[in-house]
Amino acid sequence: MKSKEIKKDIYCVGAIDWDRRLFDSLIPLPDGTSYNSYLVKGSQKTALIDTVDPTMQEVLFRNLDQLGIKSIDYVVFNHAEPDHSGSITQVLAKYPEAKAVCTPKCQGMLMDRFMVPEEKFKAVEDKETISLGGRTLEFIYAPWVHWPETMLTYLREEKILFPCDFFGSHLATTDMYVIDEGQVYEAAKRYYAEIMMPFRTYIQKNLEKIKDHAIDIISPSHGPMYNKPKLILEAYHSWAYDEPGNIVVLPYISMHGSTRKMVAYLVEALSRRGVTVKQFDLAVTDIGKLAIALVDAATIVIGTPTVLTGPHPNVAYAAVLANALKPKAKFASVIGSYGWGGRAIEQIVAMIPNLKVEILEPVLCKGFPKEADFKALDNLAASIAQKHKEAGLA
Ligand code: FEO
User: Fold this and answer.
1) Measured at the alpha carbon of residue 164, what is the angle toward residues 159 and 168, in degrees to the nearest 5?
2) Ligand 1 within 6 A of CB of 84
3) How far apart are the C-alpha atoms of 98 and 70, rounded to whole Å?
4) Ligand 1 atom at minimum distance from 147 CA
5) How far is the CA of 104 from the centre of ligand 1 (A)?
6) pTM score
7) How far is it, in rounded angstroms, from Cα 174 to Cα 12?
8) pLDDT (tens digit, 9 = 90+) per residue, 322-379?
């Protein structure tokens, strides 16, 4: 990506990573991503806000060279994760007069991870400002979006917020600003689900912290910028605060068809009762799609066959993931099958202690489901529909 001018002497200088398909060796990136870096020139000083993944530092340097940047006074590290800070050694070597500006916690992490000497840093306090000459950077501590050291940078005069991961989306696009709102909403919701959802209460606090800042543009570190910030601010507000919907998420695995039959029956029984169901075959699903569905679900039903004495490993993986993401579901249950015994249900329930859910009566069948099992599934569907109604979600 070539540098693009946002306003006079404010540029995007980051890189688009069209081909990356996995983040943190965990998160699928169906649409690639970008590592956004921004250059802000004042009348006296120049600041670079966030850098890029080290695999793309040549793109950053090319963009800065093309703008004729010979010296940088401040490199702001809003966040220590290497996709934004991994180029720190090379950037500080290219611009040896630059100070790395970050929170004290971020400084410690960057020193630990990249062995940057202490004298290269200028640690800032919450709400501290730095003047670039006619332009003022204000630093806003924003822990847990996405690590504990995170801060946001606000350019006061232009009302631009540089929130790093907060409000980001893994989306490779040449569009500087959001054009396709539906596409970006989906990518941002996926990003929220996978990265931000475990920190929902911190997100609420951080939204509160910026609510009195006038914001014309949000320039995140991944995906396009928002020149109509209402779209993403309202979305975050809804994801973080709203009650879940009248929705069941049903991730499952079936090896020989028994659990699949139960899933199909339960989906139909719930649907008849007006409950929306989103089912995911964990043998083939994109776990990002599952994460998105978890944002709004009131109930999670996990479907598993018994492998040896426990749940299918793919189901265990999904349960551990859901437990880590801490969605706002209120109810959960397990359905599944077994051949000769085992403790699949107990083991699944033990894997989700973070979920503040009421466990509804599980249904486990021996072999292929029979009349009594279908009746139990009907009872489970009725119980879920009733619980949603009592909770005011239906
Ligand atoms: Fe984009 Fe938490 O790093």
Assistant:
1) 95
2) yes
3) 11
4) 2
5) 18
6) 0.96
7) 12
8) 999 999 999 999 999 999 988 999 999 999 999 999 999 999 999 999 999 999 999 9
CA contacts within 13 A on the Cβ side of 218: 22
Domain spans in the chain, listed from the N-terminal domain onward = 4-241, 245-384
Does the beta carbon of 170 lie inside 6 Å of ligand 1?
no
Is residue 165 lining ligand 1, measured as CB closer than 6 Å? yes
Please give the biggest Cα pair distance in the chain: 79
Task: Give backbone dihedrals phi and psi of 353, rounded to 5 degrees, phi first.
Answer: -65, -25
- 146 C-beta closer than 6 A to ligand 1: yes
Q: Which of 391, 387, 317, 322 is nearest to 359 (CA)?
A: 387
CATH fourth-level superfamily of 245-384: Flavodoxin domain (3.40.50.360)
Q: Ligand 1 centroid vs 150 CA: distance in angstroms?
A: 10
Considering only CA atoms, which of 143, 100, 146 is closest in space to residue 123?
Answer: 100
- What CATH number does domain 4-241 carry, 3.60.15.10, 3.40.1180.10, 2.40.160.180, 3.50.50.60? 3.60.15.10
Ligand 1: centre distance to CA 26 (Å): 13
> Residue 164 CA: which ligand 1 atom is closest?
1
Q: Give the 3-state secondary structure of residue 10.
A: strand
| pLDDT confidence band for 1 (50 / 70 / 90) | low
Q: Which residue from 154, 143, 245, 152 is spatially nearest to 196, judged by alpha carbons?
A: 143
